[in-house]
Amino acid sequence: MNIDHKIIEEISKIVAEYVTGSEITRLFSRLDYYDYDLHNPITRLSTKWKRLNHAIIEKCNKEKSASPFFRIIEEILNPIYFQDDQETWWEAKRKVNFPLRFYGFEIDDSGKIIKTRETKTYSEAVSRSQNLLEKIEQYKIHKNVIKFCKPELLEKNYFHAIHEASKSTLNRIRDMNNSLADGARLIELSFSTKNPSLIIKGNRIQSEKERNEYNALKHLLLTINFFYRNTTAHEVKIYNPKNETDAITALILISKAHYLLDNCECVRYFEN
Fold first, then answer.
1. How far is CA 60 from the centre of its chain?
2. HEC profile of the chain
3. Is 149 a residue whose pLDDT tops 60?
4. Which residues contact residue 224 at a Cβ distance below 8 angstroms, ignoring those fewer than 6 apart?
5. For 107, phi and psi rounded to 5 degrees?
6. CB of 170 within 8 A of CB of 145?
7. Closest Cα partner for 269 from 205, 198, 188, 167?
8. Mean predicted lDDT score pLDDT of the chain
9. pTM listed for this prediction
10. 95 Cβ contact partners less than 8 Å away, ≥ 6 residues apart
11. Could you tell me the CA-to-CA distances from 68 to 8, 13, 72, 76 in Å, in that order?
């Protein structure tokens, strides 16, 4: 589908949120775009998006190409400008891609415009733009889980999101008891019923009920490690890394582990 004035206007309104007026002036000068405000000071355009819109249309008509349109998007949403604010970058990318996909294009992780499957309906556009991060809000996923896999969640990269989230439990255990171990060995050493390093507050691991509670946490952590941290798990169909329901289930389990770890304390540090 050809790029038309409507999509240029829509995208201009979006990207204008992420650039200042002076930056637009410098951008036009560097890329040799017609700056309406500079050449028509008496009838200056009142908003940033209108400046962008007029300049892009003029350049596209002149070159008889959509390249000037894509060039502006790539310049303003260059990921290097968002290195200290990743959340803003992902949100900007999502906003731009929603209308852009109707025309068969999208901006990728490197900040470049690429061809993609053309969106046909509004429902499809909503589905493609909604990320797992938004969908799991109702489950109150632990902040430590989100911290480890937010970019992957925003991109619907379920497999890598779960893999990164699973590593968050091991990282937290190491932070709690100063261990250098990893994987199942770290969990077994930290939650040994005979010589524990980490215990549940108020649980002395003496009664059957206390041992059951303690072992339940230990085996939940082991389950997370074997199911989700094991990068070959999907090959034996333990879970489907492309299935949204499986992804949500995994994140809920990992989140539960973190909430339980919130109530744990270190009674013995490791001497590494």
1. 33
2. CCCCHHHHHHHHHHHHHHCCHHHHHHHHHHHCCCCHHHHCHHHCCCCHHHHHHHHHHHHHHHHCCCHHHHHHHHHHCCHHHHCCCHHHHHHHHHHHHHHHHHHCEEECCCCCEEECCCCCCHHHHHHHHCCHHHHCHHHCCCHHHHHHHHHHHHCCCHHHHHHHHHHHHHHHHHHHHCCCCCHHHHHHHHCCCCCCCEEECCCCCCCHHHHHHHHHHHHHHHHHHHHHHCCCHHHHCCCCCCCHHHHHHHHHHHHHHHHHHCCEEECCCCCC
3. yes
4. 166, 169, 253, 254, 257
5. -95, 130
6. no
7. 198
8. 89
9. 0.58
10. 14
11. 10, 16, 6, 12
Which of these, 99, 76, 89, 78, lies nearest to 21 by C-alpha position? 76
How many C-beta atoms lie closer than 10 Å to residue 34's C-beta? 15
- pLDDT of 1 strictly over 50: no
Q: Considering only residues 35 and 234, tell me which one the structure prediction assigns the higher pLDDT.
A: 35
Whether the Cβ atoms of residue 218 and residue 191 lie closer than 8 Å to each other = yes
Confidence class for position 186, pLDDT limits 50, 70, 90: very high
Which amino acid is residue 179, in one-letter code? S
Tokens 């429902």, residue located? 123
- Contact call for residues 148 and 168 (beta carbons, < 8 A): yes
